[in-house]
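#lab-general

N.A. 3:47 PM
ok so I finally got the sequence cleaned up, no stray characters, all 502 residues accounted for. can someone with queue access submit it? mine expired

B.Y. 3:52 PM
send it over

N.A. 3:53 PM
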Amino acid sequence: MTDYLEKILTARVYDVAQETPLEYASRLSIRLHNRILLKREDMQSVFSFKLRGAYNKMAQLDAATLERGVVAASAGNHAQGVALGAKYLGTSAIIVMPITTPELKVKAVEARGGVAVLYGETYDDAYAHARELANEKEMTLIHPFDDPEVIAGQGTIGMEILRQHQKPIHAVFVAIGGGGLISGIAAYIKRLRPNIRIIGVEPIDADGMKQSLQAGKRVKLDQVGLFADGVAVKQVGAETFRLCQQYVDEIILVNTDDTCAAIKDVFEDTRSILEPAGALAIAGAKAYVEREHITDQTLIAVACGANMNFDRLRFVAERAEMGEQREAIFAVNIPEGPGSLRRFCECIGKRNLTEFNYRIADQTEAHIFVGLQVANRQDASQMAATFEANGFKTLDLTDDELTKMHLRHMVGGRSPLAHDELLYRFEFPENPGALMKFLNRMSPNWNISLFHYRNNGADYGRIVVGVQVPATEMEDWQAFLRTVGYRYWDESSNPAYHLFLA
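B.Y. 4:20 PM
back already:
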């Protein structure tokens, strides 16, 4: 068994890494009635903790091995850590990156002396190619998480936390992708202060560690969500899984809106902008406080990365209000007649409107799509009750993904010609030709009756498609879904779709 305490204490990370501050988040602490401390790994030179483990691994290699060079697979943060470490140690580094990797991260690798090779659409594709290159060129593969030296390098964060805050700590929150970061931190903290809770945080659509711990074995996910790309891992490591079984107390899942709200929280306290994966721990700490109703405790969240694409900020800003439960979205039916709209607006009162869409439906009623600023989720429920009490049939769409992503931009599009229409959402890697690849796979006999695409400045694209598929061709449609290769959701029964578009 590896002695991680010794490995962490003797890890070589400070040639390239700095001891990052443990910073008090005053605004967030006041709001949550607890002391929230942020471990600022986003302040490393590569804006991520990843250089600790990568460099520690490379620093352990003998001179002959190091001279042959290193290979890594990464979508960004690990890549930059390996490139920087290789430059410091005077060796070459080949970094295999998925073709969907943002240009910002590719250039960051090249600026640090690494050779970027774009290959495949996913991390798994890139990793397989990296292994081939390592074997072919007799270079050393630097794994992003499932390696004791990498884990020990990340564990120096736990060492710093205990040295920087020697008073009681209730819990430490850590994002989980492959598990290297939380494994190293937990292995150190649990050996010295086992009463501190170690809590992992994963996106609800990339929860490989949670599912694995529940199953008692490593589970490989068929697909992972792409928003928090830094933790988009289909299968956690064998060694990281073992350590998490031993040391991690629980795992909390958060959604995209929670993550966006956490990015905003950190910005308001620090004026720094975390990437989605970097903000997971903060989102998890907020969810934990809400669930446990604790006060006056010290909670530490590892802000583990800030490699954020600027174009993605638009999406984050839109969804942050949802994550903070400060915006509610409703579809409201009102009688079509004089005075109805005025009565509806009187119900809203002095609340701030975030969105208001109106379109006549028929001679008897009109549909209104409205967004309102609210104090919390209970406030939203009370607003819906007010509408209903005044005779307006109301549908609360605040938690409906189709509405938040697409319908709020498409309200009012009905057509008597859209017979046999199916409505599906698709998510695909955002790279040249992806949309055409999708369309080419569809049967030319199927008419597209509705189509909405919005570029969110992210590594992925999302579309909603209305397709007219005759009942006799449903088997062909199902075959298309099985082979298209993209994540999809059937929204044909969505009540918002039937209200505004069907």
